[in-house]
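Listing S7. Sequence submitted for prediction.
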Amino acid sequence: MADETTRTGLTRDVGLVQLTFYGTGTILGAGIFVVIGEVLGEAGGLAPLAYLLAALVAVTTALSYAEMAARVPTAGGPVDYVERAFGTRWLGSAAGWALMIANVVSAATITTGFVDYLSSFVDVTHWVATTLVALAVAGVAAAGMKESAWLMTATTLIGAVTLLVVLWALRDGLLEAPQAVIAAPRSMDGSIFAALLGGAFLAIYSFIGFGDMAQTAEEVRDVRRVLPKAMILSLAVVFVFYIAVSAALVGAGGLDELTEAEAPLVRAAEREGWPAMPIAIASLAVIVNSALTQVIASARLLYDIGRDRRGAPGVFGRISATTNTPLFATAAVGAAVLALALFVPLKQLATGTSYAILLVFVGVNASLIVFKRRGQPEEAPDIWPAVPWIGVAVCIGALAGQLALGFVDG
């Protein structure tokens, strides 16, 4: 029998349906339930446009990810994309560490959001609730990828139904949204451009889950066909929900109240006469879903970094023969998530994630540009050659714009 911690290979247990729900669940939970209040606070009535700009950044990079994941189907994702494209080990390692940090910070953001939602209807001690959530998420991640994927399929279905209920509750606001968005600039005190860009930069965080799907490449059946298709399907579903829900909230009005609410969607539905408790409970299922995928993605990256000796101890590159998961890497990620969730505010976490992930996105798009110059394999999707160039441009533009805003505000 193999030793409990000496295996170095993952097992391929995940298919198209599970992976699509996996991606959809993490993107929905991270964005629409946790960060939408922060986006409304930055962009106000222009929030739907902020999500639209963020989607432009996301969709170009998602298409690049889809082709790169088929060309280089490894758990390292961007680590291996960048290294194989530019032939520089340290550059690939830098991309890996940046992405792992982004995922860990993202998991902490979602954990904080979960506790905020929980405290909106249950009197809980923040540090106790945060600790329990972080330990529970790390425990499920350690149990196995197949088990995690099935759990996330169920919770994602719950989340989708919940969002449909919220949209029905806010249907009048959805009809009023076009006029509300057009009128929004007249009621804004500061720069319209700054509000829109600030909101879009936070909203970018809402879309980053598609990148986490790349870290499942060594656990997906028929990966070259399934992974790209699941990425595109997940992004399409969440894009529709983000635009519709943000528009409905803007059309319903009372944005100041929603930005201050710990659970904005629950509060919005409650104002329309719907009971808060069922929506809050369903929301929690999807939020914890997202934290789980971030921990899984981070652990897979740390596993890849440890396995390939990229600056992490080799123990992180070991797989449990019992669970087929990197237990040491998962435990380390869980501890980091807990520390960040306990001591760093949510908005700072989301902003820091966006900076790190945009740098990784630049690397993924640039890698595809290089790979396309070398040829086009039949087994990989053939994305339009201009897409990665557009991806590089919009990602750098988003970074530059946010840095400029930070400098002005500073």
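Caption to Listing S7: primary sequence and predicted structure tokens for the chain studied. Confidence is low (pLDDT under 50) at residues 1-8. The chain is about 75% helix and 0% strand.
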